[in-house]
Task: structure prediction
Amino acid sequence: MRKIKITQTRSIIDRPKDQKRTIEALGLGRPNRKKIHNDTPQIRGMIRKVSHLVKVEDVKDKGQD
Result:
């Protein structure tokens, strides 16, 4: 399964509660925190909701060519 690295780039201060809960559910919470997740439709939907607060990168697994 593909993996993606999510980095929080902006603060969640003065953001709606649903965006704050989404950031927490992704395992983030402060700017510059990083988390690696499987690339699933559920995670992509969460990223879409807070796309203005995060940066997403693909992670190359060591086992892949």
Notes: Strands lie at 3-8, 34-38, 54-59. The helical segments are 17-25, 41-49. The chain has one domain: 3-59. The mean pLDDT is 94.
